Recover the amino acids of this structure.
């Protein structure tokens, strides 16, 4: 997404109804200009999968369709200000990757992705500490918390990465815990 | 003008479908009990419910859904929260339960002072959504107003209600430990839930350090071990899912939908009419009694009347006030039974503003299994035997200890396999402590009808004018101080106090406005919950309460209702209710 397109998206967000920005744009025939187009979702999947990768016992955030989940929540549940922050953040993210690596995030190796996101995480933490209460959190804080929430409430996350017990049947207030035992999904 | 508030369109219906022995307004926790008792005693009973029907089991669409089956994983879309700012502050309002709440635009009200009025909109009312914690009042609670000189004297004492507590506890199924406490009398208990290791550690420290305090496991309306009569009701054991607000497919917690209404239906005496918005109670000047109820059908908007010998008002605290205020006649120009002018006044609630959080060290070898539907409770320990603080009454304290769940903050890398594994494991122990404070009923805390604004049914909108006072601030301060001291004694770290500053009403424990008392000049209801001035009308929901106590109120509403309903039938049989 280039700068002109990002401005177009922001303009639509400012002018249009907040819930239906995706719908408003659907008829325009230029899929790349839509917020949360295929490339955005693919990028969010890759970011999510770097934060929560596939491991021996469970798949990663990409397998939990984390990009599509973020699209749903940001579109339906975020305020317009939060949406702008998120989508504007995606643009900043792409520019920053390009500037620092001369490549796209998707072209980076695993180690390069981790290095880039770890630095961005520190930047986000520092930003959130000093921001005004009414300001939205850093866009990467949004991506990270959506990744964690979306992953652990997804079917693979809840049932493979956590201990999922839909119907416990009883309560026991003291059972042995061994390091490595998973937390409950609920 | 009295009597002109509505164009009545009646007279075209046959008498059979509009005449009953008893009418119950409302199908929530107290209305369900009125229906059950009246039907059991052989009265043909009509239950009027403003909302839609919700059948036990069949109409709990989210009860067995997994987290990933909710499009927003439990969170509500912005459109819903923006349209329902009051409801959105309620802990129980979410994607899994949204369908059980009355949306704000459907029934507007006027907040002269902020009051978060949380309303359901279906058969069963808030009995589907309640927090299910059930503690008996003690003698200190009934004696309080007279002893400490506030509100008016309760016209009943603990001994009057104790057998009715037993009656409703046995039928509903209440879990609890027999703790032998004068401040929180034991009931007819099913086996208790247990504390986890963190909670026991705190309990032991508090009990050994403070000789005026008791720490017990909560008592709640869950079938920990169903008895034969519970199985006969079609219910089964609590599965410790703790997804209760969605409706329980096991019928394991008490609700009107799963317990009292199906029971009443089985007698053959029940007629349940959903979509029936009650406009007012009809008072007959010649017979000097109430003869029926005016209803607006929520679907057809048609107005109709139903008639009965006795009427139970169980519309929920504020709605019952609204109905009585709107029931005007030449005899009662200011609302049914309102000779004292006090109808709608002395509204009270419970003070939930204070919470305290802390962390606990160690015990990382212990975890728990299942989701327990209750908390640890500490009965009120302030001003119990005499007034000795600079505030009136006191508060109940609740706490829960648990280990941090998935996604908790971790040190080290903030991405990758190690991060994923670290946030997939339980973290340290944390404690959450909260208060449930008594508030003092005062004349200025009131509800009244809007002189000009109407709801979509043409009924005057309710104005709420209820606020905290200096006593509430003092109780909050005392709770914060005591909670910090107790958690400190228990060895907790990072103790932090919080004041939610939430508006009254969000406690969902509003009571009063039609209070019980000895004297018709200072109260609306007698000791049997009959309007002093119109004895065939009984008000047995939260509206009848003279004071608030520190306990969760529902079990007391149930016991008062069962007591009043049986008295009503006795009086009918003796010919004392014309």
């Amino acid at each position: 997404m280039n700068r002109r397109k990002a401005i177009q998206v922001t303009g639509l967000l400012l002018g249009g109804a907040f819930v239906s920005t995706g719908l408003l744009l659907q008829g325009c025939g230029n899929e790349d200009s839509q917020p949360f187009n295929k490339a955005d979702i693919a990028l969010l999947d890759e970011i999510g999968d770097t934060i929560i990768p596939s491991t021996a016992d469970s798949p990663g955030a990409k397998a939990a369709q984390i990009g599509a989940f973020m699209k749903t929540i940001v579109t339906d549940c975020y305020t317009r200000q939060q949406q702008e922050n998120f989508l504007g953040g995606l643009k900043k993210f792409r520019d920053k990757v390009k500037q620092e690596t001369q490549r796209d995030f998707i072209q980076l190796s695993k180690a390069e992705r981790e290095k880039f996101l770890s630095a961005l995480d520190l930047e986000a933490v520092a930003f959130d500490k000093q921001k005004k209460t009414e300001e939205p959190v850093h866009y990467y804080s949004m991506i990270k918390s959506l990744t964690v929430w979306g992953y652990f409430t997804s079917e693979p996350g809840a049932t493979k990465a956590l201990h999922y017990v839909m119907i416990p049947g009883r309560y026991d207030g003291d059972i042995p815990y061994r390091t490595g035992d998973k937390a409950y999904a609920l | 003008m009295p009597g002109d508030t509505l164009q009545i369109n009646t007279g075209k219906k046959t008498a059979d479908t509009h005449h009953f022995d008893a009418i119950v307004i409302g199908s929530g926790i107290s209305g369900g009990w009125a229906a059950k008792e009246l039907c059991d005693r052989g009265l043909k009973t009509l239950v009027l419910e403003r909302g839609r029907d919700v059948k036990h089991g069949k109409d709990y669409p989210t009860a067995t859904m997994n987290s990933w089956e909710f499009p927003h994983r439990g969170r509500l879309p912005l459109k819903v929260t923006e349209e329902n700012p009051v409801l959105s502050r309620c802990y129980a309002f979410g994607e899994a339960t949204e369908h059980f709440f009355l949306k704000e635009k459907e029934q507007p009200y006027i907040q002269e002072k902020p009051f978060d009025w949380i309303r359901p909109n279906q058969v069963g009312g808030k009995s589907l959504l309640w927090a299910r914690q059930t503690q008996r009042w003690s003698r200190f609670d009934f004696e309080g107003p007279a002893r400490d000189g506030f509100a008016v004297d309760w016209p009943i004492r603990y001994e009057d209600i104790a057998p009715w507590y037993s009656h409703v506890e046995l039928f509903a199924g209440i879990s609890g430990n027999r703790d032998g406490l004068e401040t929180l009398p034991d009931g007819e208990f099913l086996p208790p839930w247990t504390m986890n290791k963190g909670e026991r550690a705190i309990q032991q420290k508090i009990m050994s350090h403070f000789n005026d305090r008791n720490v017990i496991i909560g008592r709640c309306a869950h079938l920990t071990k169903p008895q034969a009569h519970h199985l006969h009701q079609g219910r089964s054991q609590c599965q410790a899912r703790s997804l209760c607000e969605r409706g329980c497919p096991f019928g394991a917690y008490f609700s009107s939908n799963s317990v009292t209404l199906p029971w009443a239906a089985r007698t053959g005496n029940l007629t349940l009419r959903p979509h029936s918005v009650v406009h007012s109670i009809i008072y007959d000047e010649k017979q000097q009694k109430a003869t029926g109820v005016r209803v607006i059908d929520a679907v057809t908007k048609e107005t109709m009347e139903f008639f009965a010998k006795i009427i139970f008002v169980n519309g929920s605290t504020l709605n019952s006030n609204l109905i009585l205020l709107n029931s005007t006649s030449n005899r009662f120009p200011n609302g049914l039974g309102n000779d004292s002018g006090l109808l709608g006044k002395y509204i009270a609630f419970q003070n939930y503003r204070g919470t305290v959080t802390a962390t606990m060290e160690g015990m990382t070898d212990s975890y728990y299994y299942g989701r327990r539907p209750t908390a640890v409770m500490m009965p009120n320990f302030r001003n119990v035997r005499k007034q000795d603080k600079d505030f009136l009454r006191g508060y109940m304290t609740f706490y829960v200890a648990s280990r941090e769940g998935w996604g908790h903050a971790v040190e080290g890398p903030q991405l990758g396999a190690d991060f994923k594994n670290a946030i997939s494991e339980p973290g340290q122990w944390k404690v959450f402590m909260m208060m449930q404070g008594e508030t003092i009923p005062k004349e200025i805390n009131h509800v009244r009808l809007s002189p000009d604004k109407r709801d979509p049914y043409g009924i005057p909108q309710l104005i709420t004018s209820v606020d905290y006072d200096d006593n509430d601030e003092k109780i909050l301060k005392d709770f914060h101080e005591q909670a910090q001291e107790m958690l400190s004694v228990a060895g907790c770290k990072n103790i932090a106090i919080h004041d939610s500053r939430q508006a009254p009403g969000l406690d969902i424990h509003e009571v009063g406005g039609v209070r019980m008392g000895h004297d018709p000049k200072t109260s609306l209801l007698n000791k049997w919950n009959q309007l002093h001035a119109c004895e065939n009308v009984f008000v047995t929901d939260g509206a009848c309460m003279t004071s608030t106590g520190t306990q969760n109120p529902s079990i007391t509403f149930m016991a008062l209702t069962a007591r009043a309903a049986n008295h009503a039938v006795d009086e009918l049989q003796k010919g004392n209710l014309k």
Observations:
- The two ends of chain A are 38 Å apart (CA to CA).
- Residues 3-161 of chain A form one domain.
- Residues 66 and 90 of chain A are 15 Å apart (CA to CA).
